[in-house]
Amino acid sequence: MVDRLVNSEANSRRIAMVENCFGSSGQPLAEQGRVLVGEGVLTKMCRKKPKSRQFFLFNDILVYGNIVINKKKYNKQHVIPLEEVKLESLKDEGYNRNGWLIRTASKSFAVYAATATEKEEWMAHIEKCIEDLLRKSGKQPPSEHAAVWVPDNEASICMHCKKTQFTVLNRRHHCRKCGSVVCGPCSSKKFLLRGQSDKPLRVCLQCFDELSKERVRPPNQPQTLTNSPSKPVPDTAGSGGDSSADDDDSEDDDERVNTEEKHDEGFTSYNGVKNGFGKKVTTV
Ligand SMILES: [Zn+2]
Ligand SMILES: [Zn+2]
Protein backbone atom coordinates (compact mmCIF):
# COMPACT_ATOMS: atom_id res chain seq x y z
CA MET A 1 0.00 0.00 0.00
CA VAL A 2 1.03 3.47 -0.76
CA ASP A 3 0.20 4.57 2.80
CA ARG A 4 3.08 2.63 4.26
CA LEU A 5 5.57 4.01 1.78
CA VAL A 6 4.76 7.53 2.72
CA ASN A 7 6.48 9.24 5.57
CA SER A 8 3.45 9.72 7.72
CA GLU A 9 4.81 12.75 9.50
CA ALA A 10 5.56 14.55 6.25
CA ASN A 11 2.14 13.49 5.00
CA SER A 12 0.38 14.95 8.04
CA ARG A 13 2.33 18.15 7.64
CA ARG A 14 1.36 18.45 3.98
CA ILE A 15 -2.30 17.83 4.72
CA ALA A 16 -2.22 20.43 7.52
CA MET A 17 -0.74 22.89 5.03
CA VAL A 18 -3.52 22.28 2.54
CA GLU A 19 -6.09 22.79 5.32
CA ASN A 20 -4.34 25.99 6.26
CA CYS A 21 -4.37 27.35 2.75
CA PHE A 22 -8.14 26.89 2.56
CA GLY A 23 -8.62 28.28 6.06
CA SER A 24 -12.21 28.52 7.18
CA SER A 25 -13.44 28.15 3.60
CA GLY A 26 -12.52 24.47 3.61
CA GLN A 27 -13.37 21.36 5.53
CA PRO A 28 -11.00 19.34 7.75
CA LEU A 29 -8.96 17.04 5.53
CA ALA A 30 -6.85 15.07 8.00
CA GLU A 31 -8.24 11.58 8.36
CA GLN A 32 -6.91 8.20 9.37
CA GLY A 33 -5.26 6.56 6.39
CA ARG A 34 -5.59 9.57 4.11
CA VAL A 35 -2.51 10.35 2.05
CA LEU A 36 -1.83 13.41 -0.08
CA VAL A 37 -0.65 11.81 -3.29
CA GLY A 38 0.14 14.92 -5.28
CA GLU A 39 -0.92 18.40 -6.26
CA GLY A 40 -0.75 20.87 -9.08
CA VAL A 41 -2.51 23.49 -11.12
CA LEU A 42 -4.95 22.46 -13.81
CA THR A 43 -7.09 24.55 -16.10
CA LYS A 44 -10.72 23.79 -15.44
CA MET A 45 -13.27 24.44 -18.15
CA CYS A 46 -15.92 26.55 -16.46
CA ARG A 47 -19.19 27.80 -17.85
CA LYS A 48 -17.83 31.12 -19.11
CA LYS A 49 -14.17 30.33 -19.71
CA PRO A 50 -11.25 28.15 -18.65
CA LYS A 51 -9.81 28.96 -15.25
CA SER A 52 -6.77 27.94 -13.20
CA ARG A 53 -7.58 25.77 -10.22
CA GLN A 54 -5.35 24.17 -7.61
CA PHE A 55 -5.97 20.43 -7.41
CA PHE A 56 -4.97 18.10 -4.58
CA LEU A 57 -5.08 14.39 -5.14
CA PHE A 58 -5.52 12.34 -1.98
CA ASN A 59 -5.77 8.56 -1.99
CA ASP A 60 -9.54 8.78 -1.48
CA ILE A 61 -10.65 12.26 -2.54
CA LEU A 62 -9.88 14.88 -5.14
CA VAL A 63 -9.94 18.42 -3.77
CA TYR A 64 -9.78 21.62 -5.78
CA GLY A 65 -10.20 25.28 -5.20
CA ASN A 66 -9.69 28.74 -6.58
CA ILE A 67 -6.24 30.23 -6.25
CA VAL A 68 -6.33 33.45 -4.22
CA ILE A 69 -2.60 33.64 -3.56
CA ASN A 70 -0.47 31.07 -5.28
CA LYS A 71 0.72 28.38 -2.85
CA LYS A 72 -0.70 30.30 0.12
CA LYS A 73 -4.39 30.84 -0.05
CA TYR A 74 -7.18 28.97 -1.78
CA ASN A 75 -10.94 29.19 -1.46
CA LYS A 76 -14.14 27.68 -2.89
CA GLN A 77 -13.13 24.20 -1.91
CA HIS A 78 -14.67 21.25 -3.70
CA VAL A 79 -14.24 17.69 -2.47
CA ILE A 80 -14.96 14.78 -4.81
CA PRO A 81 -14.91 11.21 -3.47
CA LEU A 82 -12.68 9.25 -5.86
CA GLU A 83 -14.90 6.17 -5.64
CA GLU A 84 -17.44 8.10 -7.71
CA VAL A 85 -15.00 9.37 -10.30
CA LYS A 86 -14.55 8.20 -13.84
CA LEU A 87 -11.91 9.71 -16.10
CA GLU A 88 -12.18 10.09 -19.85
CA SER A 89 -9.30 11.26 -21.98
CA LEU A 90 -10.04 14.10 -24.41
CA LYS A 91 -8.50 14.51 -27.84
CA ASP A 92 -6.50 17.66 -28.42
CA GLU A 93 -8.59 20.26 -30.19
CA GLY A 94 -7.23 23.69 -31.08
CA TYR A 95 -6.13 25.39 -27.91
CA ASN A 96 -7.72 22.72 -25.77
CA ARG A 97 -4.86 20.33 -25.30
CA ASN A 98 -3.88 17.68 -22.75
CA GLY A 99 -7.37 17.46 -21.36
CA TRP A 100 -9.59 14.85 -19.81
CA LEU A 101 -12.98 14.63 -18.19
CA ILE A 102 -13.58 14.18 -14.50
CA ARG A 103 -17.03 12.63 -14.30
CA THR A 104 -19.25 11.86 -11.34
CA ALA A 105 -22.98 11.27 -10.98
CA SER A 106 -23.58 14.82 -9.80
CA LYS A 107 -21.03 16.84 -11.75
CA SER A 108 -18.74 16.41 -14.73
CA PHE A 109 -16.16 18.78 -16.11
CA ALA A 110 -13.07 19.00 -18.29
CA VAL A 111 -9.59 19.88 -17.06
CA TYR A 112 -6.43 20.58 -19.00
CA ALA A 113 -2.77 20.09 -18.04
CA ALA A 114 0.07 22.18 -19.43
CA THR A 115 1.80 19.27 -21.11
CA ALA A 116 1.03 15.77 -22.31
CA THR A 117 3.36 14.32 -19.66
CA GLU A 118 1.51 16.09 -16.88
CA LYS A 119 -1.77 14.83 -18.22
CA GLU A 120 -0.41 11.29 -18.18
CA GLU A 121 0.85 11.68 -14.62
CA TRP A 122 -2.40 13.10 -13.35
CA MET A 123 -4.55 10.51 -15.05
CA ALA A 124 -2.33 7.60 -14.00
CA HIS A 125 -2.27 8.71 -10.37
CA ILE A 126 -6.00 9.31 -10.20
CA GLU A 127 -6.79 5.99 -11.91
CA LYS A 128 -4.49 4.17 -9.52
CA CYS A 129 -6.20 5.70 -6.48
CA ILE A 130 -9.65 4.82 -7.84
CA GLU A 131 -8.56 1.27 -8.58
CA ASP A 132 -7.14 0.78 -5.06
CA LEU A 133 -10.26 2.22 -3.47
CA LEU A 134 -12.68 0.09 -5.44
CA ARG A 135 -10.64 -3.02 -4.80
CA LYS A 136 -10.62 -2.32 -1.09
CA SER A 137 -14.33 -1.54 -0.85
CA GLY A 138 -15.51 -4.09 -3.39
CA LYS A 139 -17.80 -1.40 -4.82
CA GLN A 140 -18.65 -0.92 -8.46
CA PRO A 141 -17.86 2.35 -10.19
CA PRO A 142 -21.01 4.40 -10.89
CA SER A 143 -22.54 3.78 -14.31
CA GLU A 144 -24.31 7.10 -14.80
CA HIS A 145 -22.56 10.43 -14.94
CA ALA A 146 -23.70 14.01 -15.11
CA ALA A 147 -23.42 15.72 -18.48
CA VAL A 148 -20.47 17.96 -19.22
CA TRP A 149 -21.83 21.45 -19.84
CA VAL A 150 -21.10 23.00 -23.21
CA PRO A 151 -19.35 26.31 -22.44
CA ASP A 152 -21.52 29.38 -23.09
CA ASN A 153 -19.29 30.82 -25.78
CA GLU A 154 -19.54 27.69 -27.90
CA ALA A 155 -23.19 28.38 -28.62
CA SER A 156 -24.42 31.67 -30.04
CA ILE A 157 -27.76 30.11 -30.96
CA CYS A 158 -29.90 27.52 -29.19
CA MET A 159 -28.57 24.02 -29.80
CA HIS A 160 -32.10 22.60 -29.84
CA CYS A 161 -34.23 24.85 -32.06
CA LYS A 162 -31.17 26.26 -33.84
CA LYS A 163 -33.05 29.55 -34.13
CA THR A 164 -32.97 31.58 -30.94
CA GLN A 165 -30.01 33.93 -30.82
CA PHE A 166 -28.71 34.42 -27.31
CA THR A 167 -28.74 37.98 -26.04
CA VAL A 168 -28.88 39.70 -22.68
CA LEU A 169 -32.61 39.01 -22.62
CA ASN A 170 -32.54 35.64 -24.35
CA ARG A 171 -30.37 33.95 -21.80
CA ARG A 172 -28.56 30.69 -22.14
CA HIS A 173 -29.70 27.66 -20.19
CA HIS A 174 -28.07 24.30 -19.79
CA CYS A 175 -29.82 20.99 -20.16
CA ARG A 176 -28.85 18.94 -17.12
CA LYS A 177 -29.16 15.71 -19.05
CA CYS A 178 -27.09 16.36 -22.18
CA GLY A 179 -25.28 19.59 -21.27
CA SER A 180 -26.49 21.49 -24.36
CA VAL A 181 -26.90 25.25 -24.35
CA VAL A 182 -30.55 25.91 -25.07
CA CYS A 183 -33.06 28.75 -25.03
CA GLY A 184 -35.83 29.21 -22.46
CA PRO A 185 -38.72 27.75 -24.49
CA CYS A 186 -36.56 24.75 -25.49
CA SER A 187 -35.79 24.03 -21.83
CA SER A 188 -39.12 24.85 -20.22
CA LYS A 189 -39.50 21.37 -18.76
CA LYS A 190 -37.89 19.71 -15.83
CA PHE A 191 -37.15 16.12 -15.00
CA LEU A 192 -36.00 14.29 -11.93
CA LEU A 193 -32.42 13.19 -12.57
CA ARG A 194 -31.39 10.98 -9.74
CA GLY A 195 -27.78 11.37 -8.81
CA GLN A 196 -27.81 15.07 -9.57
CA SER A 197 -30.56 16.33 -7.32
CA ASP A 198 -33.70 15.25 -5.55
CA LYS A 199 -35.51 18.11 -7.26
CA PRO A 200 -36.47 18.04 -10.94
CA LEU A 201 -33.92 19.83 -13.07
CA ARG A 202 -34.05 21.78 -16.31
CA VAL A 203 -33.77 19.59 -19.39
CA CYS A 204 -34.05 20.33 -23.09
CA LEU A 205 -37.18 19.21 -24.97
CA GLN A 206 -35.34 16.41 -26.72
CA CYS A 207 -34.01 14.96 -23.47
CA PHE A 208 -37.42 15.41 -21.89
CA ASP A 209 -39.01 13.30 -24.61
CA GLU A 210 -36.35 10.61 -24.34
CA LEU A 211 -36.50 10.53 -20.56
CA SER A 212 -40.31 10.35 -20.63
CA LYS A 213 -40.22 7.42 -23.06
CA GLU A 214 -37.71 5.60 -20.88
CA ARG A 215 -40.00 5.96 -17.94
CA VAL A 216 -43.00 4.53 -19.77
CA ARG A 217 -41.06 1.49 -20.96
CA PRO A 218 -41.54 -1.52 -18.65
CA PRO A 219 -38.76 -1.27 -16.12
CA ASN A 220 -36.32 -4.13 -15.60
CA GLN A 221 -36.29 -3.51 -11.93
CA PRO A 222 -38.99 -2.36 -9.58
CA GLN A 223 -39.03 1.38 -9.76
CA THR A 224 -38.38 3.28 -6.62
CA LEU A 225 -40.68 6.04 -5.56
CA THR A 226 -38.06 8.69 -6.03
CA ASN A 227 -37.71 7.80 -9.68
CA SER A 228 -41.30 8.41 -10.62
CA PRO A 229 -42.17 12.05 -10.91
CA SER A 230 -45.74 11.90 -12.09
CA LYS A 231 -45.66 14.89 -14.35
CA PRO A 232 -43.34 17.48 -15.76
CA VAL A 233 -42.75 20.39 -13.50
CA PRO A 234 -43.59 23.64 -15.26
CA ASP A 235 -41.01 26.36 -15.32
CA THR A 236 -42.29 28.63 -12.62
CA ALA A 237 -39.88 31.46 -13.29
CA GLY A 238 -42.64 33.14 -15.27
CA SER A 239 -40.68 36.22 -16.14
CA GLY A 240 -39.02 34.45 -19.05
CA GLY A 241 -35.65 35.18 -17.57
CA ASP A 242 -33.79 32.48 -15.78
CA SER A 243 -33.56 32.39 -12.06
CA SER A 244 -29.85 32.88 -11.71
CA ALA A 245 -29.66 30.34 -8.93
CA ASP A 246 -30.76 27.71 -11.39
CA ASP A 247 -28.10 28.02 -14.02
CA ASP A 248 -25.25 29.80 -12.39
CA ASP A 249 -22.34 27.67 -11.54
CA SER A 250 -21.49 29.66 -8.45
CA GLU A 251 -17.86 28.70 -8.50
CA ASP A 252 -17.52 30.73 -11.66
CA ASP A 253 -18.11 33.98 -9.83
CA ASP A 254 -14.54 34.54 -9.01
CA GLU A 255 -13.16 36.79 -11.71
CA ARG A 256 -11.82 39.29 -9.25
CA VAL A 257 -10.24 36.79 -6.91
CA ASN A 258 -8.14 34.93 -9.37
CA THR A 259 -5.90 37.76 -10.51
CA GLU A 260 -2.69 35.87 -11.03
CA GLU A 261 -2.51 34.51 -14.52
CA LYS A 262 0.83 32.80 -14.19
CA HIS A 263 0.94 29.68 -12.08
CA ASP A 264 3.28 26.79 -11.84
CA GLU A 265 1.41 24.21 -13.75
CA GLY A 266 2.53 20.70 -13.13
CA PHE A 267 2.00 17.78 -10.91
CA THR A 268 3.99 17.42 -7.73
CA SER A 269 3.90 13.86 -6.56
CA TYR A 270 4.56 12.93 -2.97
CA ASN A 271 4.75 9.20 -3.14
CA GLY A 272 8.41 9.00 -4.02
CA VAL A 273 7.96 7.08 -7.25
CA LYS A 274 11.09 7.55 -9.30
CA ASN A 275 9.69 7.58 -12.78
CA GLY A 276 9.67 11.17 -13.71
CA PHE A 277 7.13 12.28 -11.13
CA GLY A 278 7.91 14.51 -8.24
CA LYS A 279 9.37 17.24 -10.34
CA LYS A 280 10.32 20.24 -8.29
CA VAL A 281 7.92 23.09 -8.46
CA THR A 282 9.69 26.36 -9.05
CA THR A 283 8.43 29.38 -7.26
CA VAL A 284 7.66 32.41 -9.35
ZN1 LIG B 1 -34.37 26.91 -28.58
ZN1 LIG C 1 -30.74 17.78 -23.37
From TrEMBL:
| Gene Ontology MF term list | phosphatidylinositol binding; zinc ion binding
Q: Which UniProt keywords apply?
A: Metal-binding, Zinc, Zinc-finger
Report biased composition (Acidic residues) as residue ranges.
Answer: 244-255
Tell me where on the tree of life, at the top rank, the source sits: Eukaryota
Q: Which InterPro entries does this entry report, sorted A to Z?
A: PH-like_dom_sf, PH_domain, PH_domain-containing_F, PH_Phafin, SOS1_NGEF_PH, Znf_FYVE, Znf_FYVE-rel, Znf_FYVE_PHD
* GO terms classed as biological process: endosome organization; endosome to lysosome transport
Residue span, PH domain: 35-131
An annotated GO cellular component: early endosome
> Where is composition skewed (Basic and acidic residues) in this entry?
256-266
Q: Where is this region: Disordered?
A: 215-284
Supply the PANTHER family for this chain: PLECKSTRIN HOMOLOGY DOMAIN-CONTAINING FAMILY F MEMBER 1 HOMOLOG (PTHR46280:SF3), PLECKSTRIN HOMOLOGY DOMAIN-CONTAINING FAMILY F MEMBER 2-RELATED (PTHR46280)
Protein name as annotated: Pleckstrin homology domain-containing family F member 2 isoform X2
